[in-house]
Write a structure and sequence with these properties.
mainly alpha, 25 helices
Amino acid sequence: MNKDILIGLLVIAVGGLIGNYFIQRGRTSISKESTDKIINNDNKNKEKLLKGHEKINSEINKNIKEIEALKKAVLSNSGNLQKETGFTYEELKVIAKNVIEKSNSNIDKGNAFYVLNEYDKAIDKYSEVIKLNPYNSEVYFNRARARFNKLHNIRISSLLHELYFFPDYRNKVFDLKEVTNEIINDYTKSLELDESSSNAFFNRGYAYNTIGEYQNAIADFENAIKIHPEDASYYNGLGISYSNLTDSTNNIDIYDTAIKQLEKAISLSPNNAIFWHEYGTIFLRKRDHNKAVKYFSKALELDSTYIYSLHSRATLYRYLNKFSESILDYTLLINLGYYKQDSYFYRGQCYFAIKDCPSAINDFSKCIELKKDNINALFSRGVCYAIIEEYILSIKDYNSILKLEESSSTYTNRGNGYLNLKQYNKALEDYNRALEIDPNNLTAKKYKKKTIERLKEKN
């Protein structure tokens, strides 16, 4: 009980108005205390509410920032996701997984699957949006990007070294015309809905490059440049298109135009490894190997892990018989985890060229571990085993090849193994089979004759 009220009751018991005074003062004190408690509680509640609102706003802002980051990742042309989105790729993957789990938006989920390289799922989500709303240019654009990346997974322009060194690779790329047309149709639809999208022109230009429609590609890159004349990547695409056109028309004068466009790209963005790589690729196509090496090396100065320049330079060094330099580049590729099967095989070829058979055998074996039916690696290892006089192991590799396919050279080499082991009858059988497949096999003829002589000596 309040102290004043207790005094008042005692005074009243004795008698007098003073008791009533104390009681009244006590009631006033209780009222004040109650009011203070209410005000204090209200202030605490307000604080909690403000903190709650701040937390909600913070979460909303964080979610908006993350959703925007995924969107920017889909639109990115530079390859520098951290610069464009504010997040590392590992952080973007975490964000994407969270969006897939919690978001109700198919566009956001599509972008998330795109970032995770799950392109089929991204395409499905974008298609669901298009069914409900066929007038959203952004979704057509995103679906085209997903389809393009599903088709190639890496930029077509970065495969130019493959087209140079392995001409039949071109057919593998251009057989995909039907699928590429779907990509082009999506970009076209996006442009019909938003003709100011320089990015759609840019990406459709790359799609046209893929199927060999270089004039259309050139037109698209020029349209992109008209909209945004300071975007270096558009000049890069234009330069690549002119370079491709040169190859298809055999008009080497067009290379000069291609070079000018790449130089413009580099002048706008001199620290972009991709542009230096493409610049080097043009000189590679011109057979100016020294300049090609120089510009691939420049790209690698800017980005030591840029795998396309590493692969191109390694291949070019090997082509130029600079085997030690090539070995170093293939080693970097292997350490980075890219082109591992090819890198082991070609590094093995380089070791073989410098007469280091043990190292070559080790690389061919690594290659075979990755693909057991790799005939080239089996054949090359078989040759190395024969050189170091491990004929049984050599024959074993040729046996593995012959289970996969017959060839005159394989029978000849196995025959040589049997000849060195003095198993003349088996050697003679192999040489005969080699000559059945290829009657002009001079090596088989030579060693067949030698085997017959040995058999006569034995008898």
